[in-house]
Amino acid sequence: MAENKQEKEVLISIKGLKTYYPVKKGVFRRTAGYVKAIDDVSFDIYRGEILGVVGESGCGKTTMGKSILRLIEPYGGQVLYSFPDGRKDIFSMPKKELDAARKKMQIVFQNPYSSLNPSFTIFGTMQEPLIRFGMKSKKERKEKIASLLQDVNLPPEYMERYPNEFSGGQRQRIGIARALSVDPEFVVCDEAVSALDVSIQAQVLKLLKELKEKKNLTYMFITHDLSVVEYISDRIVVMYLGHIVEMAETQELFENTLHPYTEALLSAIPVADIDKRRKRIPLQGDVPSPVNPPSGCPFHPRCPKCTEICKTEIPQAKTIIRNGQEHMVCCHLAENLK
Most buried residue, 29, 135, 193, 281, by CB count within 10 Å? Predict the structure, then answer.
């Protein structure tokens, strides 16, 4: 489990992050509104931790991860990264400086079948970032790639093969090796195991934890599987409709859930032991459209504990201290929920 907050170093500070997609209408394709995929999100990522991000499909998890890396251009906000020469805003960096900064930040994509170019050998795919960041010698690149493949438990000779010769689990290992090829500090794992069989998931999760310790990495682990995030994460962020609704240390979140949405998510986790099962909390209706979000709390149309204030006022983030740990929740009823 992660250390106390006072002993942690902030690697990335996200402040007021907004990622909107314009909605175009009419002959002249004028902007008629915005899809608010991420709407005013703020939190810190500590060096050396695994931060889990969970929520239903369409809640903004992947968009947030890609926005932090500036693979998607944000609408507003700041992402302050702690470089050796000080904290810098990723969003205000010119292209040349951003390209150099990308060496510190990498991503493992969700689908291992589409994230590797089928026309390139594994060596061809993995050497591209090495060339871009200054490794001119082909011999050095081969040695580096051989070492990386061994790090992910694959034989070095696999670098001469094509992606179609590998299973899904092997492809994802190659994707992880590619992400680590430029020695990053921060890696976004975007549903990194969701496309894999359960037995292969366990192997890849174990590998990710081993690599984190070996290479002093920091992960943002995006997933919809709460069992997976409970196993791998130090802290968990729960998202709903582009907002963070709850954030806490993993054990604290599971044992002292404060937000009704998180309670409903946790109640849906399959548990083999019948004595440890939670009472199922079904949610009514569908997730509202981010083009036209509801007034007040974004969760109120589906919340079984909704009150009148929930329908009109957006809840502010509250931080509750439990057993010396910070537990953040955005809910009008937070202090009365548990």
Answer: 193
pLDDT of residue 276: 60
pLDDT confidence bin for 262, thresholds 50/70/90: very high
Question: What percentage of the chain carries pLDDT values higher than 90?
Answer: 65
Distance separating the N- and C-terminal Cα atoms of the chain = 24
Q: Name the nearest CA neighbour of 239 among 68, 53, 49.
A: 53
Query: Closest Cα to residue 158, out of 143, 174, 137?
Result: 174
Q: In which residue are the tokens 């009704």 written?
A: 260
- What residue type is assigned to position 225 of the chain? D
Domains of the chain (ranges, CATH numbers): 5-240 (3.40.50.300)
* DSSP-derived 3-state class of residue 315: coil
pLDDT the model gives residue 273: 61
Q: How far apart are CA 76 and CA 297, in angstroms?
A: 21
- Tokens 């919809």 sit at which residue? 224
The CA distances from residue 213 to 12, 162, 208, 216, 276, in Å, are 19, 30, 9, 5, 32
Q: What is the 8-class DSSP label of residue 191?
A: S
Residues across the chain: 338
What is the DSSP code string of 193-217? TTTS-HHHHHHHHHHHHHHHHHHT-
Q: Are strands 317-322 and 325-330 parallel, antiparallel or unpaired?
A: antiparallel
The answer to whether the CB of 328 falls within 8 A of the CB of 257 is no
Confidence of residue 246 (pLDDT cuts 50, 70, 90): very high
Centre a 10 Å sphere on the Cβ of residue 277 and count the other Cβ atoms it contains: 12
DSSP 8-state symbol, 165: G
- Band (pLDDT 50/70/90 cuts) for residue 336 is low
